[in-house]
Amino acid sequence: MTNENSRTRRHLPRFCIGVYILTAVSALLYFAFTKSAAFSDWFNRNVSQWGRRLLAAMTSWLPFSFAELLLLLLPFLIVLVIVIGAKYYCDSNRSLLVYIGILFSAVCICLILFVWNFAPGYYASPLHEKIGLAREKCSAEELYQTAEILSNELHNVSEEILFLEDGTSLMPYSYEELNRKLLAAYESFCEKNDFMDTFRSRAKPIMLSEPLSYTHITGIYTFFTGEANLNVNFPDYTKPYTAAHELAHQRGIAREDEANFVAFLVCMESDDPYIRYSALLNVYEYVISALRSANKKLYRLSYENLPLTVKNEEIAYSEFFEKYRENVAADISEATNNSYLQSQGAPQGTRSYHMVVDLAVAYYRPALD
């Protein structure tokens, strides 16, 4: 038995060989995505969605984030890997190389899941073509007019929102209820847009939300577990919109500006005023930020027209965020995310989040004076 085990350790398991073959196929598949938006659309719609659904089905029943659990267990797993390697695979250089090959196959599995389930979304045809918007470079005047439309809608919906003494608004239901409302909104949106399907899943609160806030991450989709994860430490008004954003990733919308805009459209489908308020205010913040860079006079004029309750919400958020604004974790997170997005065909990197402004202006352009 000992000799047999020794011989086994000198050869890479067949499963790992299969993983390496599939990794090579995935590399070719990824190359095909980068060359054809039509193929990426087809694959995302007809193949990837089933992989995302399967992963979501495997993890959605858990009341906690499985990806977060893996992160918490990472030190233990690293020690376990070292102990197993030292005990069973250090009798020769060959067996050590086999063990390294086994470990690397685990990395390859993550790459395979990324390519097959999520990557085509980065190279698919643009969202504005799918929903019939003319995306053009917008002027400062168009930014101002779009901000005014959003401000007026915020004024109307804020009358139904409960605001606390500290200026923050209150989400009047649990995360489970928020999830049900967002899924209903997604069903309504997908009935009108055939480029995306929805399914039963959930946006999961992150246990370590407060430490995560130092990275400035409000939510994250973990493609290797199929989970939409939500930082619940941030003020309530960010949560419905962020959850909708991560659920958009879960449904194959990979680009950040497009996930932002799908989240906005989905939230506006909801009959819940707080969900619409969250979407309106988050997109208003993107638009007003762009307007501030384009024309400070129009920016000040627009901000003056913002409802007082919403101004107080913005002030409260600024006070909340001050604790997390400047730190090393945020710098590392920003640099890592920026490099990742650039590697996936988004030269703007993390600035691509703000490109939702172009989509918002295109959406409201027919109503602009």
Percentage of residues in DSSP E strands:
under 5%
Structural class: mainly alpha
Low-confidence stretches: none
User: For the terminal residues, how far apart are their CA atoms?
Assistant: 83 Å
Q: What oligomeric arrangement do these chains adopt?
A: single chain
Order of helices and strands: HHHHHHHHHEHEEHHHHHHH
Record the strand order, biggest sheet.
1-3-2
The main pleated sheet reads as: 3 strands, mixed
**What number is the mean pLDDT?**
90
Whole-number radius of gyration?
A: 23 Å
Estimated helix fraction = 55-70%
Determine the number of helices (DSSP H or I, runs of at least 4 residues): 17
Count of discrete domains: 2
Number of separate strands? 3
Gross morphology is globular
Folded structure, characterized:
67% of the residues lie in helices and 3% in strands. The relative contact order is 0.13. The longest helix is centred in the first third of the chain and has 25 residues, at 93-117. It has helices spanning 2-9, 14-35, 37-59, 66-88, 93-117, 120-123, 127-130, 140-158, 175-192, 209-212, 239-250, 256-269, 273-294, 296-304, 308-321, 328-343, 356-364, and strands at 203-205, 219-222, 227-230. With 369 residues, it is mostly helical. A three-stranded mixed beta sheet has the order 1-3-2. It has two domains: 2-123, no CATH class; 127-367, no CATH class. It is globular and about 75 Å long.
